[in-house]
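Quick start: what a row looks like.
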Amino acid sequence: MQIHGLNKTTLLDYPQHVAATIFTGGCNFRCPFCHNSGLVLNPAGQPIISEEEVLAFLKKRKGILTGICVTGGEPTLQKDLKDFLRKVKALDYLVKLDTNGYRPDVLGELLEEGLLDYVAMDIKSSLKNYGVLAGIKEIDTDVIKESVELLKKSGIPYEFRTTVVRELHTGEDFEEIGNWLAGCPAYYLQAYRENEYVMQRGYSACTKEEMEEYAGILQRTIPKVLIRGLD
């Protein structure tokens, strides 16, 4: 598997667990506000960490770490993701997957084999605006809806999350999302942060008041809505 980064210890990426985060390269989206543009646009130009090195590290850290988070890029593009996760599970680690949900076939296979313990799926926007936020003109939102349904039926903990960008999101978007995902167990609004690696400059974060307004809209239909990343 093409691994381009390893955060050896995190208390943030996997709820209630001390974990390591593994970064894969490549993505099937081109979100203009993406903060990992190097991994998305030029994965071949990024440093590579061998699978063997990562597994050896995990073996040494057993008892200190309890889980891993596999993120990207988009991990479901990795053709040998399933094989890698089998090796991780053999070390008795919990596995969290971060995904954009655009490969429900892969997500379904991983869930069916019991290789996932937690999934965080990005919800870019309301379905009508999804293509704009994902950077794809002809996006198939039925694929996104299929992944949502897989998670609902999965029996494992999962969350939906949206990186909120002032110029790209409106209250109407969150009203539609709230109706679409009504009753889901957890929804997180993440504050946008600009950095030197962002795909497209010029976007800005919402104020605390704006984030709370959007959270309030979602709370009409979703019991647990939290905000991440506010200073």
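That is the whole record. Residues 3-165 form a domain with the TIM Barrel fold (CATH 3.20.20.70). The longest helix spans residues 141-152.
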